[in-house]
Amino acid sequence: MRVIAALMLVSSPVLAQGGRGGRGAAPATAAAAARPDSVARPAAAAPLRRVEEEPPAVTHHTLHGNADFKYTATAAMLPIRNEQSGETDGNMFYVAYTKDGADPATRPIAFIFNGGPGSATVWLHMGAFGPKVVALNPDGTNPPPPYTYKDNPNTLLDQADLVFLDPVGTGYSRATSPQNGPKFWGLDEDMHAVAEFIRLYLTRNERWASPRFIAGESYGTTRAAHLSGYLTDNGIALNGVVLLSAVLNFENSRPSRGNDIAYVGFLPSFAMTAYYHKKVAPDLQKLPLEEFARSVETFASGEYAAALMKGSALSAAERKAIVTKIARYTGMSEQFVLDSDLRIELAHFSTELLHDQRLQSGRLDSRLTSYMQDPLAGRTGFDPSDASIRNSFTPVLNDYVRRELGYKNDNLYYILGGGIGRWRYEEGQYANVVPSLERAFAKNPDMHLFVAMGYYDMATPYWAVQYTLDHMTVEPKVRASRIHTDHFTAGHMMYIDAASMKKLREDLRGFIDGAIAKR
Q1: Rounded Cα–Cα distance for residues 169 and 219 (Å)
Q2: Could you give the CA distance from residue 93 to residue 434 in angstroms, rounded to a whole number?
Q3: How many Cβ atoms sit within 10 Å of the Cβ of residue 364?
Q4: What's this model's pTM, rounded to 2 decimal places?
C-alpha cells in the first residue's frame, strides 16, 4: 500500500508480462536469457547449497466464539529452491492455522498475503482474518499504548484453514545470500516464488484435495491475479480469489499527463472524501451516501471524462460549467480546479480540502487527518492513516509470534519496507496483470472472484478498480455469476473499521460457500 501495508504501492508503474515458466525455468526470450538469474548452470556445478531447515513451532489453541473449537498453529519456514539448480535461494516464513479434526480432503485452505511490494502479511494476519487481531478503536485508530491483541470474532478460521505467508524480503523471510535477493524482487520473480511456496505447502501437508483460495491486499492483489493464471497453467486451479483494495492495471490509477483515465478514476474518491468531511455543495451533502456515490460516478465517467478528452478544444463556456461541477463535488474552490487544469492531484487535494482547519487528510484512509506542520507546503509530509497503525502492529506481532506461537527468531521483522531491493518490472509499460486473471477464468470458468473496495481509499481508488473490472475480457455468464464486488465506508484497510470488517466477513462467508458448492 502506501507506503503502507498492504500496502505501499511501488512508485514504478511498469510490469513484466507473466511468463509461464517457474523461477529458474528456461527463459522464453533472448532478453530473459541474458539475465544472470536465468543462466543455466554447467554440469560440473559446485555442490548444492541446501540450507538446513529449522524445526517448525507448533502450538495448540482454542478459538472462542459462537461455537468454540480447537486449532493448531504452525510457525515455520519453507525453502524456495531454484528449479534449475536445486539450490535453496531463499526461505519464506509463514503462520498456518488448521482446525483440529477436520478432513483435509474437504476443508478449504486459503493462502493469504499483503503487498507493498515489501510489506509483510501482518496486516491481514492480525488486522483481518487470523484468530487474533490487534486491539484497535472501532474506527480503526489506535488506543493509547501499550498495544495488545484479542480474539477475532471475524476470523476466517471457522470456515477455512489459513496460511499467512511473508514473501522473501518481508517479515522474517530472507534470501540465502545478498546475491539471491533480486531473484525474488520483481513481478514475475515474486509470483513464481509464491507459487512454489503454495505447491510445496500443498505437497508437504497433503492438501492437494482441498478447495483452494488465495487472498491479497493492495500489491498483494497484483500478485494474486498474476498467480491465478500461473497456478491454473500448472495444475493448481483455484476455487476463489479474494482481492482487497485492488490494483490490477497500474495505468488506471496512476495520473499523469496524457493518462486522463486515472484522473477519472480518482474523482469519485475525492468526492466521497469531501462528502465525509462535509465539504461538498449543500444540496449534494443532503443526499444519502450511496445516492451521492452513484451521482459522482455518473458525472466522472460521463461529463468529466468527455471534458478531459476534449483538452484545449473545450470551449470557455464548457470549461466554466465543468469547473463549477467539479468544485461542487470535491469541495475545492473553482480557482483551485482551474489552476489544476481540471486534473486534481492527490498531494494537493489532501492539503487543500481541510486547509481552513490546518489539517491534512490521509492517503490510505482519507477519513483520518493530522495537523499540518507547514500549511504552505502544498503537499503532505506523511500519511496520517499510515502513522496511525504502524506503531501498534509492529510490537503486537513481535510479541504474539514469540509468546503465543513459540516461534523464536531474533532477526528484524520487516513489517513494511527495508528488506527488499529495487523491484523489477518490464521497461516501458504499465504493470497489468489483467491478462493473467482473464486466462484463469478462461481455463477455469468455475473460479470465483471477490473484490472489496473502500470509498476512502486514495491508494487504490475504487472507481479505477471498477473501470478495470468492467474492461476485463471474460465470458458474460462468468461475469454475471462468478465476479462479486462490494463497497465499504472505510479506506484501503477497510477491515480495521469494525463495522466494515463485520460486513466483509459476511460477504466472504457467502463467497467461500458459493465457490465450493457442488454444481
Answers
A1: 15
A2: 28
A3: 32
A4: 0.89
